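Worked problem 6 (solution included).
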Amino acid sequence: QVQLVESGGGLVQPGGSLRLSCAASGFTFSSYVMRWYRQAPGKERELVALIPAAGSMTNYGDSVKGRFTISRDNAKNTVFLQMNSLKSEDTAVYYCNAFRRATGREYDYWGQGTQVTVSS
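Solution. The predicted structure is:
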């Protein structure tokens, strides 16, 4: 079955760094756009970063540009989110998403989320 398992979240001080990982299984990982979303308490889920199946032309939300980097390893079916210069407003649950549109159908898979807390 399809699984997306995030890891790497935790508590970090402002200005610190974390690296999130999302291990995928049960589908052809290299054919999917991979995205990281986040949702803070009382706020809507927002797109943080995405990386196409081919791995180029990454895209980032305005609030994380220059601080976060998304990457993928198709050989290991894993997508990463390197988060630097973390701020308190980055505190949220971070979700991994796999998306593909093909032959009139959409395939959309989600992980269970990992908590990131930025606090002194």
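Discussion: The chain has no helices and eleven strands.
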